[in-house]
Amino acid sequence: MQRVFEALASPVRRKILAYLAHAELSAGDIASRFEMSKPSISQHLSILENAGLVVSEKRGQFVFYRQVEDNLANTLAGFVQEVCPVGRPLRRESATLAGDRGKGGEG
């Protein structure tokens, strides 16, 4: 449980979770949404994965990330993001991305 709280302590990691709320994204897609280096984003993703909040899957040369849906911490984080002025728009963007992909859009 300590790893979960440490992972959720970072605003960057909470934003990543908000982006992954409804959509699976590649590491590059996630990194493009932040003004920090790809290695820094990779480290944040590793912390989230070690805490059991996200899982990764390598496909070809890309690594895709998605939330672990049945994780209590993700449920709580989702609730907080709904009322958070920063997280709410990011969750909306995630839902839009998921809808676009469901309609055959590129991602």
Classification by helices and strands = alpha+beta
- Uncertain spans, ≥5 residues at pLDDT below 50? none
Residue share in helix: 55-70%
Radius of gyration (Å): 13 Å
Helical element count? Answer: 6
Query: What is the succession of H and E elements?
Result: HHEHHEEHH
Quick one: how many beta strands? 3
- What is the strand content? 5-15%
Q: Largest sheet, if any?
A: 3 strands, antiparallel
Gross morphology = globular
Query: Can you give the mean pLDDT?
Result: 87
Q: How far is the N terminus from the C terminus? A: 33 Å
Strand order of the largest sheet: 1-3-2
Please tell me about this protein's structure:
The longest helix is centred in the last third of the chain and has 16 residues, at 87-102. Helix 1 (2-8) packs antiparallel against helix 4 (38-50) and helix 2 packs parallel to helix 6 (87-102). The N and C termini lie far apart (33 Å). This protein is of the alpha+beta class. A three-stranded antiparallel beta sheet has the order 1-3-2. The protein is built from six helices and three strands. Residues 1-87 form the HTH arsR-type domain. Keywords: DNA-binding, Transcription, Transcription regulation. Pfam families: HTH_5.
